[in-house]
């Protein structure tokens, strides 16, 4: 009955993809025959295997251009029929192989869309497809790679790199051996070392998603370290800084800044892990981050991309050297023990997080201008389209009178159907057959994707009705601003809700921390040095010990984890917050950390004195109350869900986007 | 099974501008699939090849402008009609689009050249009035759906001031929400799409963010003063929103009203006051009178000089609904509010969607908790039973006025709280100086609670809440609605 017959195998909490347990074994590294698809219950499907195969093959044959809608439709179909994963795999493999043999004269990039489809299905549906594809992906990739031109190769390489962190836990999409095998085949034995720089420098373009995914990864590591060692204040500190950094990146920074953040990040991650020699790659330490340090030896051609201009100082190799030497940035070779806390300040000093927010590299500026240009063009197109619509509407000879309304023949079909030729096959919403319309439709399909994926991960999680929003939020919710609101139901996250969700999540994590009560100290009341409230001890069944919940140990003193984090944040994030506010050009009350919210008295309503309802959103109220409810265990379960301004749930970010 | 599937489905070929109407009996459900052509349910287009489920005694129609073939899983009360008022509704839509376009142009300061200079530059702010069973809510839904489908990024506000209808909340509520995508129809329990849950949804219409006030009664005549006040509160907030969001204002507003506004019998004085309240509060510029000659004349006489009053035909498809039906709908609504929309698929139908969402995501888990009597302050607005002011002896005044919040003590036997539906209020103004006596009349509702058990000796009560959020220290208002979880 369910659309999503494939249960997620990885026990991943839906909203925090970096807080996975340390030793996960969820990803089945199977390279032999994958298990047969779940036998379909005879009633529960509309297509039998034979007609499904026919249908899928037919649809695949349309995939001879790089069209996102087609790819998305095909992968949705794959998701819907994941019980026929085997069939999908066979069709896809056959399609890729056949398209070569049959159409020798056809441009070789023809295969790229099919690989993009494979990529999209593996990443978005993941289970069981990644497993099924892993069987043949190595020969297929290498075979294809040998047949195509340089341009297409570079695209394949780009895709290959995203596979390194392509699975839901940011690990290798098809497992380590296939990944290594492909990389060896593509770049030779020392492959995994020089390719990366080829990608990251050669293209010169670092995407936000890329940086974010690395950030997430690092954050995950640090948080695991923190979990293993709850009162390690250094890790705690790192986590905080990384969180801030992530917000910074999410808010949008220039190319150059991304580059530098990335470089810093890598040097930090590299620190504690012994540098593996590329020849002895093992699972344990084969991590994408490690390979970036080495110097590039080849640069695959990227015709469409301008090489990234470093700001005059540096060679193309090490990213870290981009940071002006005066900032005493650790070089990769002699990275000291990861002084991650310095990261932010170094970046600040280096001007990465510049106050003006203007990018400094010429290339970045050019790129930004190009992007602006595109926006302007889109705007013009959009304006023209809506002008045409307005004229058509105004030319309708209808007046708002009973007579006109009832007697005339409406031209409605033209407006509701003909004008909007493209239709979403999932929900029937229509879009104009124009550039803008197509773009909107792509966004819309993306949204379906995300929702399907989220639903997939959320099975069995239990949902509930959210509280209604308060007056202030309702009045100021701009989701329906014309042009911004989309007909497809993408609810924009207001920054407030996003920040609130972030805060709630962090809060829940902090509250889950505990300190084991020393023997004999059970009866002694211990109070948090910050808030002076007594720490509540309780019996923790997992390790059969009495623990203090929501607690961290620091310098032999036990603090409330929440108090401690708050205190840390208020000293650490001050500079960041300041920068951020300057950079975005306005003060956002909801920026990085909760304390700003908590410290600020609620704004007085700008209402006149007539009978009004000056109430506040429950979320704000809950946040205010949250400072008081520290130890109550229930709180940690409540915060995420129940305080809910509904847009919370929209907040899952997918670190990697399918290439297209 | 496959055989059964083929025998229980039936194909209907609909000519252009006809509709297939169906009515479901209690406990049955229906699946409809568009085989080819274009079809819509109250203005929301169906996607081809998807199974759409209907349940909870849904009475609806599949309309087609250009003809279509639909496959119906399980025939019920059904017929095809070629007499629909859809052409008139479509004309209305186009007329409103013209208003939106002009309003947008005025907002952007573009010159009006090719156009009737006398035309107003105001976006449509529409009040729909009409007698019982005239299809007001359906008309509102069609107009909103056409507006969001125009491809212009409109997101009109839909306001519901019919307390017996309840909109997205529970019956007894007045509410308004911006709509971004077509409102699906699947059951009378959420006729206008559903309010946000923690589940992911594909359609924003299934995650609406309404602003909700709690009136608490089905009948507007029960406490017209309170109705009046809540209407004005809702209107004030709508106008605040428009002041803040001038682009959004262009999409306009559609207000659905209770049938008591349209029924011109008996004590009609409060009726006119409430219509006046709506016209003022929402700055109405168009009144649509659905299929009622006398009401039309009445509206023309009162408002004809200041705004446009249009009489429009009512659909022949509307079903006369009796009192018990409405009661059952209230039960469905509260059940849906707490537990989500669950429609069992007819045999042989799988992969179906309810209102555009996959079945799995629609089940919700409310939370039942035991709280102390002191955790929640409960009020009733006005006295529990109240004679109309006109029925009081001459010269007599009320002991308790209609607008006075009266604390209700759960410890008192006969408090009437068992099984009562409570509107949980948003927190009052945190600034003590801004507070005033009747503030709780002006607070919005954050959710609904049901008191499922009262333990007077231990001063405890069990409440059913939509989620696990704490209600401690909050204030709630009790009305006359009751609900028992069956």
TrEMBL record, chain A:
Pfam families (UniProt xref): CID (PF04818), Pcf11_C (PF21936)
CID domain span: 48-190
An example Gene Ontology biological process: termination of RNA polymerase II transcription
Single GO MF annotation: mRNA binding
Example of a GO cellular component annotation carried by this entry: mRNA cleavage factor complex
Residues covered by region (Disordered): 313-332, 585-660
Protein name, as recorded: CID domain-containing protein
InterPro entries: CID_dom, ENTH_VHS, PCF11-like, Pcf11_C, Pcf11_CID
SUPFAM superfamilies: ENTH/VHS domain (SSF48464)
Automatic annotation (TrEMBL), chain B:
UniProt-listed Gene3D superfamilies: Clp1, DNA binding domain (2.60.120.1030), P-loop containing nucleotide triphosphate hydrolases (3.40.50.300), Pre-mRNA cleavage complex subunit Clp1, C-terminal domain (2.40.30.330)
Clp1 N-terminal domain sequence ranges: 13-103
Low complexity bias (residue ranges): 191-201
GO biological process, one term: mRNA 3'-end processing
Gene Ontology MF annotations: ATP binding; polynucleotide 5'-hydroxyl-kinase activity
Keywords tagged on the record: ATP-binding, mRNA processing, Nucleotide-binding, Nucleus
Subcellular location: Nucleus
Binding site for ATP: 19, 59, 133-138
Region span, Disordered: 108-130, 179-201
Segments forming domain Clp1 P-loop: 130-340
InterPro entries named in the record: Clp1, Clp1/Grc3, Clp1_C, Clp1_C_sf, Clp1_N, Clp1_N_sf, CLP1_P, P-loop_NTPase
Subunit structure: Component of a pre-mRNA cleavage factor complex. Interacts directly with PCF11.
Family to which this protein belongs: Belongs to the Clp1 family. Clp1 subfamily.
Protein name in UniProt: Polynucleotide 5'-hydroxyl-kinase GRC3
Species, as recorded: Tricholomella constricta
């Amino acid at each position: 009955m369910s659309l999503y017959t494939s249960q997620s195998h990885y026990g991943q909490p839906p909203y925090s993809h970096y807080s996975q347990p340390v030793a996960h074994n969820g990803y089945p590294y199977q390279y032999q025959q994958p298990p047969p698809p779940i036998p379909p219950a005879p009633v529960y499907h509309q297509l039998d295997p034979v007609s499904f195969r026919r249908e899928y093959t037919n649809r695949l044959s349309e995939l001879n251009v790089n069209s996102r809608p087609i790819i998305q439709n095909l992968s949705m179909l794959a998701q819907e029929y994941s019980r026929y994963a085997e069939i999908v795999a066979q069709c896809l493999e056959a399609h890729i192989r056949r398209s070569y043999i049959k159409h020798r004269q056809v441009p070789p990039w023809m295969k790229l869309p099919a690989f993009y489809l494979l990529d999209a299905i593996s990443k978005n549906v993941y289970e069981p497809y990644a497993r099924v594809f892993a069987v043949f992906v190595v020969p297929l990739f290498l075979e294809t790679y040998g047949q195509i031109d340089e341009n297409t190769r570079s695209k394949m390489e780009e895709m290959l790199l995203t596979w390194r962190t392509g699975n839901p836990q940011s690990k290798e999409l098809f497992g380590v051996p296939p990944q290594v095998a492909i990389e060896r085949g593509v770049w030779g034995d020392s492959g995994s070392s020089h390719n990366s720089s080829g990608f990251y420098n050669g293209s010169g373009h670092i995407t936000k998603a890329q940086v974010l995914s690395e950030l997430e990864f690092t954050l995950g590591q640090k948080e695991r370290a923190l979990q293993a060692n709850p009162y390690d204040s250094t890790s705690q500190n790192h986590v905080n800084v990384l969180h801030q950094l992530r917000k910074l990146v999410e808010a949008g920074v220039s190319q150059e800044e991304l580059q530098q953040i990335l470089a810093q990040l890598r040097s930090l991650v590299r620190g504690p892990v012994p540098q593996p020699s590329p020849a002895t790659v093992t699972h344990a330490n084969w991590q994408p981050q490690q390979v970036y340090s080495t110097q590039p030896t080849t640069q695959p051609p990227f015709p469409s991309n301008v090489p990234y201009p470093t700001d005059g100082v540096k060679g193309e190799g090490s990213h870290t050297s981009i940071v002006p030497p005066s900032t005493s940035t650790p070089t990769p070779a002699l990275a000291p023990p990861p002084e991650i806390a310095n990261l932010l300040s170094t970046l600040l000093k280096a001007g990465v997080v510049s106050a003006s927010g203007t990018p400094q590299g010429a290339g970045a500026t050019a790129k930004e201008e190009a992007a602006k240009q595109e926006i302007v063009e889109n705007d013009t197109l959009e304006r023209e389209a809506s002008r045409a619509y307005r004229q058509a509407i105004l030319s309708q000879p209808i007046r708002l009178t009973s007579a006109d309304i009832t007697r005339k023949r409406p031209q409605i079909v033209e407006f509701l159907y003909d004008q909007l030729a493209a239709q979403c096959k999932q929900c029937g919403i229509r879009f104009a057959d124009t550039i803008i319309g197509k773009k909107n439709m792509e966004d819309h399909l993306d949204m379906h994707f995300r929702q399907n994926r989220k639903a997939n991960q959320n099975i069995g999680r239990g949902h509930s009705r959210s509280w209604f929003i308060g007056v202030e939020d309702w009045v100021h919710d701009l989701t329906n601003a014309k042009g911004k609101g989309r007909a497809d139901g993408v609810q924009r996250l207001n920054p407030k809700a996003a920040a609130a969700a972030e805060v709630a999540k962090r809060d829940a994590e902090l509250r889950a921390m505990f300190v084991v009560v020393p023997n004999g100290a059970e009866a002694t009341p211990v109070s948090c040095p910050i808030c002076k409230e007594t720490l509540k001890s309780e019996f923790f069944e997992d390790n059969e010990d009495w623990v203090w919940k929501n607690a961290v140990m620091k310098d032999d003193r036990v603090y409330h984890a929440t108090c401690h984090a708050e205190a840390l944040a208020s000293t650490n994030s001050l500079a960041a917050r300041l920068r951020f506010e300057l950079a975005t050009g306005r003060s956002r009350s909801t920026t990085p950390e909760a304390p700003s919210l908590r410290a600020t008295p609620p704004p007085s309503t700008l209402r006149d004195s007539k009978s009004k309802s000056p109430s506040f959103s429950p979320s704000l109220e809950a946040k205010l109350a949250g400072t008081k409810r520290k130890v109550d265990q229930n709180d940690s379960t409540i915060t995420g869900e129940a305080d809910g301004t509904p847009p919370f749930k929209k907040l899952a970010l997918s670190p990697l986007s399918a290439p297209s | 099974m496959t055989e059964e599937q083929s025998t229980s489905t039936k194909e209907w070929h609909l000519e252009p501008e006809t509709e297939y109407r169906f009515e479901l009996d209690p406990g049955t459900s229906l699946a409809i699939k568009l085989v080819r052509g274009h079809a819509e349910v109250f203005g929301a287009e169906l996607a081809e090849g998807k199974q759409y489920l209907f349940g909870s005694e849904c009475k609806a129609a599949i309309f087609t402008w250009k003809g279509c073939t639909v496959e119906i899983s399980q025939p019920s009360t059904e017929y095809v009609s070629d007499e629909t008022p859809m052409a008139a509704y479509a004309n209305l839509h186009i007329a409103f689009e013209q208003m939106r376009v002009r309003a947008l142009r005025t907002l952007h300061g573009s010159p009006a050249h090719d156009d009737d200079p006398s035309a107003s530059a105001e976006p449509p702010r529409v009040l729909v009035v009409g007698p019982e069973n005239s299809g007001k809510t359906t008309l509102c839904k069609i107009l909103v759906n056409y507006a969001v489908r125009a491809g212009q990024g409109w997101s009109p506000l839909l306001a519901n001031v019919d307390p017996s209808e309840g909109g997205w909340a529970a019956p007894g509520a007045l509410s308004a929400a911006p709509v971004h995508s077509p409102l699906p129809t699947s059951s009378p329990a959420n006729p206008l799409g559903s309010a946000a849950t923690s589940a992911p949804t594909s359609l924003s219409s299934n995650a609406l963010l309404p602003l909700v006030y709690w009136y608490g009664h089905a009948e507007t005549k029960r406490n017209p003063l309170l109705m009046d006040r809540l209407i004005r509160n809702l209107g004030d907030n709508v106008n605040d929103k428009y002041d803040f969001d001038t682009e959004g204002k262009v999409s306009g507003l559609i207000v659905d009203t209770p049938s008591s506004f349209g029924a011109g019998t008996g004590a009609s004085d409060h009726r006119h006051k409430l219509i006046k309240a709506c016209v003022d509060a929402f700055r109405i510029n168009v009144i649509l009178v659905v299929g009622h000659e006398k009401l039309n004349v009445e509206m023309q006489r009162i408002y004809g000089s200041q705004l446009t009053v249009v009489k429009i035909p009512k659909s022949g498809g509307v079903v006369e609904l009796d009192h018990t039906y409405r009661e059952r709908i209230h039960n469905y609504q509260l059940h849906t509010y707490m537990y989500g929309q669950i429609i069992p698929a007819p045999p042989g139908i799988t992969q179906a969607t309810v209102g555009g969402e996959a079945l799995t995501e629609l089940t919700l888990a409310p939370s039942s908790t035991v709280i102390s009597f002191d955790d929640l302050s409960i009020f009733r607005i006005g006295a529990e039973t109240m004679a109309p002011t006109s029925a009081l002896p001459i010269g007599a005044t009320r002991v308790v006025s209609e607008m006075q919040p009266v604390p209700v003590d759960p410890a008192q036997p006969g408090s009437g709280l068992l099984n009562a539906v409570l509107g949980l209020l948003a927190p009052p103004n945190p600034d003590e100086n801004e507070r005033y006596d009747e503030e709780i009349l002006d607070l919005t509702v954050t959710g609904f609670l049901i008191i499922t058990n009262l333990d007077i000796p231990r001063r405890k009560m069990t409440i059913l809440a939509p989620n696990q959020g704490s209600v401690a220290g909050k204030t709630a208002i009790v009305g006359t609605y009751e609900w028992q979880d069956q």
